[in-house]
Amino acid sequence: MRPLTPRRVFTICLALCGVLFVAVVISLRVGAYPVSIRDIVMTLVNATLRRWSEIPPDFQSIVLNIRLPRILLGILVGASLSTAGAGFQALLRNPLADPYVLGVSSGAALGAILSLIAAPHAPGLIQAAAFAGAIATIAAVYFLGRRGGQLDSGTLLLAGIITASFLSAVIMFLMTTLPGRDVRGMAFWLMGDLSSPSTVDLKWLYFLLVIAVGSIYTTSSDLNLILTGEQEARHLGVNVHRVKLVVYVAASVLTGLAVSVSGAIGYVGLLVPHVIRMLFGTDYRLLIPASALGGAILVVVADTLARTVVAPTELPVGAMTAIAGAPVFIYLMRRRVR
Amino acid sequence: MLVVATAGALLSSAAPMTFGARFAARSGTLAKDGRVVTDEVGRRVVMPAEVRRIVTLAPNLTETVYALGLGDRLAGDTDVCDTPAAAKQKPHVGNPQNPSLEAIVALHPDLVLATTSINRLETVVALERLGIPVYTSDPHTVRGMVDSTARMAELAGAGDQGAAVVAQLRRRLDALHARLAERPMVHVLFVVWEDPLITIGQNTFIADALRYAGAESVVLSDRNWPQLSIEEVVRLQPDYIVFTSDHGETGATQLADLRSRPAWRDLDAVEMGHVVDVSEEAVRPSPGLVDAIEQLAHKLHPEAFSAENAEPLVACDARAGFKPAPTDAREERTSCAR
After folding, report:
1. What is the pTM of this model?
2. Quick one: closest CA in A to B220, which residue?
3. Cα separation of B144 and A129, whole Å?
4. Distances (CA, A) of A13 to A10, A133, A170, A289
5. B277 forms bridges with which residues in the sheet?
6. Distance, CA of A136 to CA of B288 (rounded, Å)
7. CA distance B79 to B88
């Protein structure tokens, strides 16, 4: 592996931005309604110049109001999940760590179902409840996973798995026993879905994303040292406890953010950081930004497939990330073994 | 050059576009000369001056549109809309739970019809934000279905013909009530799903439909679709077991099947051959439901419709009532309901 220079970080991130851009253009281009590249450029240029009347109403609806918000949501969710995954993996020094293994998605789904029971027709509440559920779960897992005042990787993972299965059982119990409740939306929370993004305000979500990814990024040199061993890191002057807390909180916020707008899209947090490691090495100064971009690419591509392969019906994007992600993961793993 | 221009447009246009609902208001001006109505879930719907293109998001709504003689105004329906046969030829917008928003937009509907029993609130909200009027129906009783049909007839401009269809539905229900009111209720087990055994709760429109057919569900549950154990069925001992003939099964084949099953074969109803099928219209809140009620009433109370009880009230096969051409369908319906 070549030594990591700022130039190399910049080059790789720029290349990933290029791939993301291509994915975005393709995603804007394909779908149930035919739109040419020329139409897209025309629509976007006119939108930038605020010449709304120049844009045909159909393109305004389909390109600007349906496809673009969905793509932006996909980028947000992908970047959040994969950065959170990278963070948790460093924190627990365990390659299996992933927001979903830690029970966060079940917590978010439980929050969502509770809000559906309490106030089924209040838009926005369900997102807030899912976010609260995710954060509460991850806090509970954090306290359950401590042993002798220290975060213990094995205990934490076990606490997460147990919490996840407990919460899933509670969800099943609620779904089968509640009288006449509308829990149809629940399936989408459990599978992950980007099809109705218009109820959330992306501005604040992006703001939170930048803050949380930024905080994890500031700890990346320390994370590199912690990965070689906590004792060693401590001897080198790293405040291990503080770093762990920052990463844990930021990764939790990122996961809650993603799950609250899209449900449980699996595999992204596990897959993307591993692929980035296999391609570009394990240095967290590169791994964090590259994972964010890689996650965005994966989710945008997966969602494009989800809404086109059996169009006009849409598949849950979570199914696509798993179907598309697992073979790639296995290929990279086998190649590295050889 | 093109790439740079598009990238610039994308980045700068992203901000105003998604970070607010200003686009929705823009496209909403289409309906400025229409009136505002409140739908059955209390949402305000800005109706266009004239409804020329309707998109339905559920099979029962598609049937309702055809029954009202508005088949030629149906611009699109869902993948699962199979009745009448002509509905299969219409452009599809995906499945009811996750339709493609852009496929709906591309059909340029003046009015989208949705229902709480199968569609999701998220879909309704997203369409509303795109400036497309969505009327959501929410029938819980047979009369509720008729009222809802009347409302949709009026909104879609079905005129005298729509009013006639609705009046006829009311007359037929009154006639059934008059004929069966004095007869003892038959206690039935209505089978929604066999394995696991799912039946109906007392607050569903199906429970109400059973009452019109002179029957009552043996299961009293607040849940809409309670799951039942065979032990409970043995304890309740229904007079009749009612299946829907959605897979081409008849009461006779169901009976043969039940007679081969332990526990089931010892039920009084099975021993006496009291197993009947009813058209799957029975589980769809559309005008065809009244056909299914009449059909079931004839099977459960044959004596009430015997020769000396006069006035032929011919059971209409729900499917026979529909013909591809809307005019035919009307004639069929009229003759059926005489």
Report:
1. 0.78
2. A179
3. 33
4. 5, 33, 42, 7
5. B243
6. 49
7. 8
The closest of B240, B174, B236, B185 to B211, measured between CA atoms, is B185
Residue A234 φ then ψ, to 5°: -65, -40
Tokens 């990278």 correspond to A86
Q: Tell me the nearest-neighbour CA distance from A203 into chain B, angstroms.
A: 6
Residue A338 CB coordination number (10 Å) = 4
Residue at token pair 């199914």:
A319
pLDDT recorded at residue B6: 44
**What does CATH list as the number for A6-337?**
1.10.3470.10
- Give the bridge partners for B111, in sequence order: B54
CB pairs under 8 A between A and B: 150
* Residue A180 to residue B223, Cβ atoms within 8 A: yes
The pLDDT tens digits of the residues spanning A152-170 come to 777 888 888 899 899 989 9
Q: Are B190 and B208 in contact (CB under 8 A)?
A: no
Give domain limits for chain A.
Answer: 6-337
8-state DSSP, B317 = P
> What token pair was written down for B69?
């003689």
Q: Which amino acid is at A324?
A: A
Query: Interface pTM (ipTM) of the complex?
Result: 0.76
SS3 content of chain A, % helix, strand, coil (to 5): 75, 0, 20
3-state secondary structure of A192: coil
Question: Is B122 in contact with A196 (Cβ distance < 8 A)?
Answer: yes
Q: For the beta carbon of residue B25, count every other beta carbon within 10 angstroms.
A: 11
pLDDT digit string, tens, across residues A170-203: 988 887 776 545 555 666 677 777 876 556 678 8
Tokens coding A322: 């798993």
Please say whether the beta carbons of B161 and B152 come within 8 A.
Answer: no
- CA A152-A280-A14 angle, 5° bins: 120
Which tens digits make up the pLDDT trace of A41-64? 888 888 888 888 888 888 888 888
Sheet holding B111-115, edge to edge: B74-76, B54-56, B111-115, B134-137
CB B99 within 8 A of CB B93: yes
Structure tokens at A67: 């496809």
Q: Can you tell me the distance from the alpha carbon of B79 to that of B145, in angstroms, rounded to the nearest whole number?
A: 23
| Six token digits for residue B187 | 């206690």
- Residue spans of alpha helices (H) in chain B: 2-18, 22-28, 59-67, 101-106, 121-129, 142-155, 159-180, 205-212, 230-236, 251-259, 268-271, 288-300, 326-337
Indicate yes or no: CB of A311 within 8 angstroms of CB of B5.
no
The Cα A166–Cα B274 span in angstroms is: 44
How far, in Å, CA of A100 to CA of A89, rounded? Answer: 12
Residue A262 confidence (pLDDT): 84
Instruction: Name the nearest CA neighbour of B122 among B136, B108, B111.
Output: B136
- Domains in chain B (CATH in brackets) are 25-138 (3.40.50.1980), 165-337 (3.40.50.1980)
A64 vs B contacts (CB less than 8 Å): 13, 17, 23
